[in-house]
Design a protein that fits this description.
Distance between the termini: 23 Å
Structural class: alpha+beta
Largest sheet: 9 strands, mixed
Strand content: 25-35%
Low-confidence stretches: 200-204
Number of helices: 14
Bound molecules: adenosine-5'-triphosphate, magnesium ion
Radius of gyration: 29 Å
Helix content: 10-25%
Shape: globular
């Protein structure tokens, strides 16, 4: 490709609305353009990267025996009603009506559509296992689209779905997909980590997320200092190491005007955060209504108690049978009804609702709580003496230094960007949509199902988070928009430079490289800066200074310095 015939549109200024480096660089290098919140256009330069990622994903999926298909982006509501997700999915699902007033959605994912295909297409166990995948645009009306294509509303996903006669066959394909995902992320050149995302509660469902390690990542990952244990912090179990000491202090009510946060409470009382209890009122299952409209039998509000220095883990909390899922906090009115005060002064003493304490919170003694009266707290509080022992559960996020749940070493917490997710779904969708086939003995068996996603467009952003410097992107060769750029110096004035550049351009293309010839009539410094920003891995400079000796200047995008090489060595140099 000749730069003069390509659209190169770089900017020096850092866009004000781009918070993370990949978003800034993608805009500055002209890979993407924003259309509206969470909606981005892929410009020709950016699309080249997307296509390369897709190509690697396709090759590895095909190698693993998956078959490519393409499903409609728009899906009929009936299928989602059958699976129960029309109700459950919530506002992330973009719903629409056609001209006949029929309801549809724009697919955020395709379990329903593929299970519908499976129940219609598959007639015998002999057709199993089968793994179908597509690379396609998804839409999720994210509550907070941000970081450009990292969390956008429209994005490209590779999604695969496999069907099996039994769980053993599903496990085999799940492992094969794990291997294929490692091959994909290795080929792209990412520093990634497969982490356990086992939910444990949905019928033994097993899932693994693939995270690209980056400080800007939205997920915390808990990894063992010793073993290969790695789990999303959302899922990492906390091994409790505290024990409850005896009560020594007397209960004392103190005035705490204007105190709303744990920090303020620590200042007002002189206690550490670990001696203060946070009492959070959340909606209980009694807030749910059954299909016939009647109320679910259960508490409307539940109190969760966490140590002041710990964070509530929403996922763990909402798995508790008394807590409504997804987790929502009680509103101001319910708080006043239950605790007689505002949110800043709630405490667990005297509540007539279930009180569930995190393991470490249940081991506190002589601690500080809200007094259930505005502007008052109580110090010197002790379980069993001043209030009943609570129900105990693991409710908090794992933190740095917690013991690793596998008993080996301690946890360190690193940040990650989830780029892939593989899941043993089991029979959830096949049961709901009645997808079954006769087995060897002629007996109908509900299909076992797995699903496997890669966020293609998020991978592009994640790759930049890991591969950049102050001057711009540093693509790994396998996904670079161009592998090599040739920069002729002063070609307008030098026929020799022009001819040598053209010749090199032809030769490198013949060798199979993706080459960009920067034939724009610009100063060398401008061309260099553009190519560094765009991140092309190899740069070859053709100049009158070196040509007479049959030499070129070569620079690897990651190298500190350029070097002078023989013309004859250029291919070998690029290949090392
Ligand atoms: P997240 O927790 O980041 O919202 P998810 O669990 O909703 O992800 P999946 O439903 O497993 O994601 O989708 C598969 C893959 O699609 C994810 O691993 C991620 O790479 C990508 N993905 C999901 N949501 C988005 C988004 N809003 N923008 C870009 N990529 C996304
Ligand atoms: Mg999501």
């Amino acid at each position: 490709m000749r730069a003069s015939q390509f659209h190169i549109a770089t900017t020096k200024e850092t866009p004000a609305d781009a918070e993370i480096i990949s978003h800034q660089l993608m805009l500055r290098a002209g890979l993407i353009r924003r259309l509206a919140s969470g909606l981005y256009s892929w410009m020709p330069l950016g699309l080249r990267v997307v296509r390369k990622v897709e190509h690697i994903v396709r090759e590895e999926m095909n190698r693993a025996g998956a078959l490519e298909c393409l499903l409609p982006a728009v899906q009929p509501a009936e299928l989602w009603q059958e699976s129960g997700r029309w109700e459950k999915y919530g506002p992330e699902l973009l719903r629409l009506h056609d001209r006949h007033d029929r309801e549809f959605c724009v697919g955020p994912t395709h379990e329903e559509v593929i299970t519908d295909i499976a129940r219609k297409e598959l007639r015998s166990y002999k057709q199993l296992p089968i793994n179908l995948y597509q690379i396609q645009t998804k839409f999720r009306d994210e509550i907070r689209p941000r970081f450009g294509v990292m969390r956008s509303r429209e994005f490209i996903m590779k999604d695969a779905y496999s069907f099996h006669i039994d769980g053993a066959s599903l496990s085999q394909t799940f492992d094969d997909m794990h291997t294929a995902y490692c091959a994909v992320f290795d080929r792209i050149g990412l520093d990634y980590r497969p982490v356990d995302a086992d939910s444990g509660s949905i019928g033994g469902a097993k899932s693994t997320e693939f995270h690209v390690l980056a400080n800007s990542g939205e997920d915390g990952l808990a990894t063992s200092t010793v073993s290969d244990y790695a789990a999303n912090v959302e899922k990492a179990a906390v091994v409790c190491t505290t024990t409850r000491a005896d009560a020594t202090a007397e209960q004392t009510v103190i005035d705490t005007p204007g105190v709303h946060t744990i920090d303020e409470l620590c200042k007002a009382t002189g206690a550490n955060a670990s001696q203060c209890a946070k009492t959070l009122l959340v909606n209980g299952v009694g807030m749910n209504t059954q299909e016939d409209g009647s109320a679910v039998d259960g508490p409307k509000v539940v109190a969760l108690v966490i140590r002041g220095d710990h964070e509530l883990n929403d996922i763990k909390a909402e798995k508790h049978p008394l807590v409504q899922s997804p987790l929502t906090f009680a509103d101001a009115k319910s708080i006043r009804d239950v605790a007689n005060c505002d949110a800043g002064s709630i405490g667990p003493i005297g509540l007539s609702i279930p009180v569930i304490a995190d393991q470490d919170a249940a081991n506190m003694s002589d601690f500080v709580v809200g007094a259930n009266e505005n502007n008052k707290h109580i110090t010197g509080v002790n379980w069993a003496r001043d209030l009943p022992d609570p129900e105990v559960a693991d409710l908090r996020n794992a933190i740095e230094g917690d013991p690793s749940p596998d008993g080996q070493g301690n946890l360190t917490i690193v940040r990650g960007v989830e780029v892939g997710h593989i899941f043993e779904l089991g029979t959830t969708y096949s049961e709901a949509l009645k997808a079954s086939v006769p087995d060897e003995s002629g007996k109908n068996q509900t299909l076992h199902m797995g699903c496997y996603g890669i966020g293609i467009t998020r991978v592009v952003a994640a790759a930049i988070e890991q591969n950049h410097d102050n001057n711009g992107i540093q693509w790994t060769r396998s996904i670079a928009p161009f592998e090599v750029v040739i920069v002729p110096i002063n070609a307008a004035k030098s026929d020799a430079v022009k001819a040598a550049s053209e010749k090199l351009y032809q030769e490198l293309q013949e060798q199979g490289f993706d080459v960009l010839l920067d034939d724009r009539p610009l100063r060398p410094g401008v061309m260099f800066a553009d190519m560094e920003l765009i991140g092309i891995p190899h740069r070859v400079v053709v100049s009158d200074k070196l040509l007479p000796d049959n030499k070129l200047e070569y620079r690897n995008r990651r190298a500190e310095e350029s070097e002078v090489i023989d013309y004859a060595d250029v291919v070998a140099r690029i290949n090392t």
